[in-house]
Amino acid sequence: MVLATLLSEASDPLSRRDHQALRNLCGVAPVTRRSGKRCVVSMRRAAHVRLRLALYHWSRVAIQHDAASRTRYTQLRERGHSHPRALRSVADRLLNVACAMLRDGTLFNPGAAQRLPSAS
Questions:
Q1: For the chain, which terminus, N or C, has the lower number of CB atoms within 10 Å?
Q2: Measured distance CA(86)–CA(76) in Å, rounded
Q3: Phi and psi angles of residue 105, each rounded to the nearest 5 degrees, phi first
Q4: Contact of 79 with 59, CB cutoff 8 Å
């Protein structure tokens, strides 16, 4: 269902392999408001509802069944992030992996990600 929702609702950014447009459309990219003295980072409210829900469920299931996603989620929770904020970060990582797979024309290989140095 997640893939069907992504393909139907976000076909244009997926065809362009545009990670930033996907982040904005799905609501996982944060919004930063700056003034002279303050910098406030908040959740993006202007997002496609179906895509937001699809990514929520994708990341929720990923932290249950994928070791890398679970590790990332646990690290974020230990740093004090809320559950929804941590899930949005996991969803952002999953979108990044999906865009890289589409761009490179490769299949998902969970063993390959463990060989790469982790980016924080």
A1: C
A2: 6
A3: 70, 40
A4: no
Question: Six-digit token pair at 15?
Answer: 């065809």
Tokens 């893939």, residue?
3
Distance CA 82, CA 52 (A): 17
- Structure tokens, 118: 């982790």
Handedness of CA 18, 26, 46, 32 (dihedral sign): negative
pLDDT, mean of residues 84-107: 88
pTM metric for this prediction: 0.78
Q: Exposed/middle/buried for 102, CB within 10 Å: 0-12, 13-18, 19+?
A: middle
Pairwise CA distance, residues 74 & 92, whole Å = 15
Q: Domain ranges for the chain, please list them.
A: 2-107
Q: pLDDT tens, 39-66?
A: 887 777 777 888 888 889 999 999 999 9
Q: How many residues does this entry show for the chain?
A: 120
Tokens of 11: 């076909």
Q: What are phi and psi of 40, to 5 degrees?
A: -115, 125
